[in-house]
Every structure is written in structure tokens, then in C-alpha cells.
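Appendix B: complex inputs.
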Amino acid sequence: MSGIAAQLVADPTWWHLSRSAAIVAWVLLTAALVWGVLIHTRVLRPLGRPAAMVELHRTLGTVGLAAILIHVGALLADRAFPLSLADVAVPGHSSWKPFGMALGILASYLVLAVQASSWLRHRLPVKAWRAIHLGAYAAWLLVAFHAGLVGTDVVNRAYQLTALLTTGAVVTMVSVRLLVDRNRAAPAVRRQRANEAQSAGTRTP
Amino acid sequence: MPDPVRAADRSADPTTIPMIGLRGRRRVRASHAPGAAAVRASPPTMTIQSRPRLRTLITRTNVMTDNRSRPGAKGARIFVVGLSATSILGLTATYGAAYGPVERPAASGNSWSSASNPLTGPAGSAPASPSGSQRRPKGRAGVPGGAAAKARPATTRNVGGSGTAGDRPPKSVGPAQRRPATATRPRPSSTTTKRPATTSARPSGSTSGGSVSPGGAKGSGGAAGTAGSGSAGHSSSGAS
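Resulting structure:
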């Protein structure tokens, strides 16, 4: 083997780049999810226009998707870690930690679907867009498990802190969203029940 | 700024509709368009529902005006992209600083020379490992495989310190592992007695050292694996 080839094999830059991109993608997807919930709950309305907030939310998702692509591309480029295209594209194909890898692959597909639905939002029915968009929560969960099962830095303190912060933020935001949705739905439910009671009262002689 | 949709709702005169939209190549806001004051002052006689094309126009214009062309949104986009790129590059550099200098092979392609190999000790002495200790470690610290971390003594950097070594899949077979034990490799009985004290028995340019191991290139980490401390990874590092 020539010296250059040996150096390519031994060069850890691609591997480091892959790990860095994965962590940044995780943080960006978390930020996109948190930002989306904040937009949904209208907490950010005093800060600016909702359209600008949505644009930032979309940007976070797009850059997160780009970081995922960098993560996968660097894995493929790392010659010391012989992953094939099928290993990173087909869930369960990889012989190395197939379950964790499959979670990551599924998460990347979900993120891609969510992002594509955002780009095509005006061409999709609202219900379809919303259904696909809710997949972002599942994608984040898959990413978290993928990071915990496959992540090389799982014993690193900074990595653990990142996991803790992202998980805490997402759990908090999901709780807030559920509460807000319930509070918003409450008046409508009350009105519907009142209408039903009223109609029932008018029917009874 | 009044909402363009509401402003259009209040417009009494359909001729005022084109003011919301594009004038040349420049986007025009409803409030700044000519006739906007008249629209605001006009009574709300026309509803937007009665004019679907107008609604489409206003919606598109509103989105275009509010969303992408806003300087704030553009700045936020640049900020996110820049911060992400900086984070990725910074983390990569940090990883490189933490792990790179130890695992990176020498410029000639040889990672370990027998004179400097801490596993084999001083040149000419018997290697600490019966096999595989002189060849280039399979993996790197902090990357899957972890043979480097396992084979590295406790005196080197990153050995079990961060605990992140290892985790490279076992199929990561380095060049040393792929190379079979050649016929030119000296046998253990002869090398231990005939090898010069100052030179390596490894062929020049080869990453696999002149092992005195009976196991040849198929050896595992050997006894050197015990020299490392900390977690060296999850994967088994035995050579295939």
C-alpha cells in the first residue's frame, strides 16, 4: 500500500467530521422542534412576525437535514470504517450494531419527509402536511436512541450533558404543547356540549 | 402596518387591487402602495371571499413580503448556517486535537517504529506482545475498533482517559491485518537472535512490523491490550 493510501485509511478527519455533524444535527433538530412548539403555542408572537419565526423554524430543519447528510457522507468517505451505501441507506443492512444504525436511518428518512413536506406545504393538503409534520417527534425520538446506542461519545460528559439538555427541552416542550392544545380545545368542547344539550332540550317536549 | 388582507377587505374600489403586489421587480407593501390611505378610509363593502383571485394574490404577496425577503429572516438564516458550520468544524478540530496526534501514522506510512514503539520497549528487546504488537494498531482511539486504544500503553494519551476509545466495527480491517504473514518474515527462533539491536525487523514501508509472533499477522491485540486502561470500546477488536 502506498503511503498516501495508508494515510487516507488512517486519516481520522472524516470520522471526526461525521461525529461532529451528528451532534450538530441532533442539536439543530432539537432546536427546530422546540422552536416549532414555541410557534405553535404563540409564545413568540411578541418577538416578531409569525412568518419570520416559521422561516427560522424551517431554516433550522433544513440545516439539520444538511448536517445529517454531512454525517452520512463523512461516514461513507471514511475509509477506515468500511460502510457501504446500503449500510447507511437500508435499515438493518449494516452488520455493525444493526438496530442502532436502523434507528438512525429511519430517523433520517423521517426528517427528510418532514422537511420535504414543509417545502411542498402549499401543494399538500393541510391534514397530510400536519400528519407528516408530526413525524418530527418520532424522528427526534429515533435520533435520541440512535445517539445513545451507536454514539461513540456516550461516556463523554459533554455528550451526556447534550443528551440531557436536548431531552429535557423536548420533553418540556411536548408537555407545554399538550397543555396548550387541551386548553385551546376546552372552550370548543364546552361549546359543543352546550349545543348538544340545547338541541337535546329543544327536542324533548 | 395594517394587514394587507384586511386592507383589501376594506377596499371599495376594485381598481385599488393591483396596488398589492409587484410593481416592476420590486415588492410593494400594501401600506406603502399608492392609494393605501384611500383603502384604509374606504368602507368595508367588499369581502375577500367574493374575490378568490384577489385572495390568492394577497396571500402570495403577503407570504413573499413577510417571509423570505425580510432582512431579519435572512439574518437569522445566515446566523443558523454559520453557527452550525462553525460548530461542525470546531468539533472536528477538537476531536482532531484530542485524538489525532496519537493515532495518526508517521509521514512514511508507518505508525510505529520498533525503536519508538512503547509496546516493544527499547530496540532489540523482546516485544511485550507475542503477536500483533508491532504492527500498526487497527483502530484509533475514539473511533470504532479501538485496537489502538487497547494496544496502547497507559502512558500514552487518551488511553481510557476520556473513555471514548473504541467502538469501531470489527470489520474495520486495517492494512496490516489484510496483509498475510509473508514468507520473508523471519521466524521467531531466528529473529530473536539475529535481529540487529537498532533496527526494526519490519520491512521498510510496511505497516506490519516484523513480528516475532508465531501467530504472524493474524494475532490479536495480545498482552499489550492489558496495558491500556479505561474503556476501549464496545466492539471486539480481534483481527479477522
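Residues 14-25, 64-68, 101-166, 170-240 of chain B have pLDDT under 50 and may be disordered.
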